[in-house]
Fold this protein.
Amino acid sequence: MVNRKRADGDSESRAAARLRAAGLRPTRQRAALAGLLFKGSDRHVSAEALHTEATKVGIKVSLATIYNTLHQFTEAGLLQQVVVDASRCYFDTNVGDHQHFYCPDEETLIDIPGNDIKVSGWPQAPKGTAVERIDVIVRLKRI
Amino acid sequence: MVNRKRADGDSESRAAARLRAAGLRPTRQRAALAGLLFKGSDRHVSAEALHTEATKVGIKVSLATIYNTLHQFTEAGLLQQVVVDASRCYFDTNVGDHQHFYCPDEETLIDIPGNDIKVSGWPQAPKGTAVERIDVIVRLKRI
DNA sequence: TTCTTATTTAGAATAATTCTAATCTATTGA
DNA sequence: TCAATAGATTAGAATTATTCTAAATAAGAA
């Protein structure tokens, strides 16, 4: 019998390979969190929400490690930060070219494919700087 | 002789009229802060920075009032909030159609006129919602 | 194994913001 | 003009999200 703790052991070992490729030591916590984050379709998570979710499925991890991990993943290009309002920040597993709808009422983000939305005509970046990235938030209201 | 505390009494009384028009009682603190905010050209201020500035020019006002006032002004359409990263939020005296460059190194915002920059092609807003506003942050990096 | 170094952890510290309850002040109307 | 009242301001406590710290643990190399 294979040494395996859970049914999703596969997604964790895939995660481990992915971490190694990104230059991150695949520790138990990082592999487990990567397993959660990259298992299904794209997600937008807050640190607190991920901590709650991890705890719920039996991953023992501290909130400090959640923050460390989210930032390391972001550094490594596995995640992207989306800031929608003061002190409400999400980590997005979709790191491709895309933008977001934001519903303040439900505090949820919805992806807008980069192929759909276009930004054009910004002025030249100030001397000594270059454009790193362009973030668009299409803010919604309930009607 | 006219009853006037400072040379900028005029900008304060203009501010008072503006507050009244916005449905806000023109108290001493609000008039003084409006005087600071709307005197010159457009600005991007943080709560802390405005408090420091107010204190420096002799306006006696608590930080709580700064926050209250900035939010009330925003409600009233005199200011607009710009969120650039987790827990760094600015209030913008330019409430017209425009967007921003953001330099993370210097933590400064630069206006991009709405005539210059264009966003197009976003999908239909989800059922029951409408687009309230579109915010674009052109993030810069030092080169 | 054992060693070394990176990682994780609990809990303290920090920072920005909001809340609270008491005090004060602008406006209203007598 | 003045008192009443509703709204505004205040200091300081509370809250929230996040980061820091120093000790304990675990991964990878020898």
The helical segments of chain B are 9-21, 28-38, 47-56, 63-75. Chain B has a mean pLDDT of 89. The first helix of chain B runs from residue 9 to 21.
